[in-house]
Structures are given as structure tokens and as C-alpha cells.
Amino acid sequence: MPRTELRGLYAITDEHLIPPRALPERVEAVLRGGARLVQYRAKRADDATRLQQARALAALCREHDALLIVNDDPVLAHRAGAHGVHLGRDDAPLAEARALLGPDAVIGVTCHDDLQRARRLRDAGADYLAFGRLFPSRTKPEAPPCPLARLGAARVLDLPVCAIGGIDTDNARQVIAAGADLLAVIHGLFGQPDPEAAARRLAALFAQATNH
User: Fold this and answer.
1) Residue-wise pLDDT tens digits, 4-38
2) What does the pLDDT read at residue 211?
3) Which pLDDT score, from 0 to 100, does residue 206 have?
4) Exposed (0-12), middle (13-18) or buried (19+): which is 106, by Cβ within 10 Å?
5) What is the pLDDT of residue 121?
6) By C-alpha distance, which of 137, 127, 187 is closest to 157?
7) Tens-place pLDDT, residues 134-155
8) pLDDT, mean over the chain
9) Are 30 and 57 in contact (CB under 8 A)?
């Protein structure tokens, strides 16, 4: 999936919402529902567990023609055979991640609402730019807010724009209309009684937007 085709539903796992034993099952559910990328985000598990889980999710993503992105940890992404890594403001430098993972890896970066940072990271070789939080977030309630208009402004940077923060089936349509190529969703998927159905509804919004 070239970076120009990075579009659609981007599911992000959450240890507080998904019991460890249920992780493969829940991720496969959102993949069946149409998720195009999955981000493995694990802060509490030990290294061996994280490697085991990441390898399992990488295999699932390949079965569903989707991409596995590892949060914050280029070394884990490399060891697990993931498709790439997502780097926050305080994570490893992009150049180091690229040197480790190679030219074909997908490297996404957190930009919050900062277009200058986004421009610098684009020039450094990022593959997508993430902006948020757009709405109140249960995962990161302390994250600074980002206006929806920033998504449209970021399109001049000519990289896929990822939107994150409180996105669900009620507000996703306006986020896509504002300029998002990727909808990064956590609670709106894994906090729902039927993650597959939630994924299907969110993924369908991209098809509707393409057809209009």
C-alpha cells in the first residue's frame, strides 16, 4: 500500500479496552469490518508479550491486506515484521527509524495542530501526518485540541492526513469532509459492543465520500 493510497479506517489498540487474550479476535473483527491500518499500542506489557502480540497482529493484517503500524517503538516494529511505526513528539528521531526499518516502511508522525512541525517532518521523510485531538478523547484527555480546519490546511503538504481524537460514527463524516485521509479510532471501535459493525460503518463513510 503506497503512501499515496493511505486512506481509510485506522484502528488503534488500547490495553484498557482489550483484554490481552482477546486482542487477536478484536483486531480481526475490525479488519473484517474494513480497517486498512492497525496500530499496535501497548505501554504496560513486557517485551516478550509485546513481541508475541505484534507478530500475531502483523500476520492478521497481512491476511486482510492491511498494514500493521507499531506505536513509538521502531525496534519492535522491525523485530515483529510490522509495516511501519508511528512516532510521537518525544519518540525516536524519524531518521533513526527510517534507517532501521528501510525505505518501504510506513512512518507516521504526530503533529498535534502544528503545521510547521508537519512541514519539517514531511521534509524528513514522513509518510503520513497525524493531527489531533479533534474532539474530547477518553484515551488522551490531556492532549491539546486541534481545530478541524487544520486538516484542510495540511493538505497543501501533499501527504496523507490522519485525524485522531474522539472520532466515532457520529462525527466521522465531518472529519472526512474536512480533509482527513485516515481516521484513527480507538474507543469508537474497541469501546463498542460490536467492533466489527462499528468498523464497517466508519469504513463505509470513505466509500460514500469517494462516490460523491
Assistant:
1) 479 999 999 999 999 999 999 999 999 999 999 99
2) 58
3) 84
4) buried
5) 97
6) 127
7) 998 887 788 889 999 999 999 9
8) 94
9) no
Supply 135's cell numbers. 474532539
Distances 13 to 62, 84, 97, 198 between C-alpha atoms, Å? 17, 15, 21, 14
Tally of residues, the chain: 212
pTM for the model stands at 0.95
**190 and 157 Cβ atoms separated by less than 8 Å:** no
Give dist(CA 23, CA 55) in Å, integer: 12
Residues 6+ apart with CB under 8 A from 95: 124, 125
Distance from chain centroid for Cα 45: 20
Residue 194 neighbours by CB under 8 Å, 6+ apart: none
Residue at grid coordinates 479488519: 31
Domain 3-211: top CATH class: alpha beta
pLDDT at 4: 46
Dihedral sign from CA coordinates of 126, 119, 183, 51? positive
**Residues 151-198: pLDDT tens digits?**
999 999 999 999 999 999 999 999 999 999 999 999 999 999 999 999
Beta carbons of 81 and 58 less than 8 angstroms apart: yes
Rounded CA separation 129/29 (Å):
26
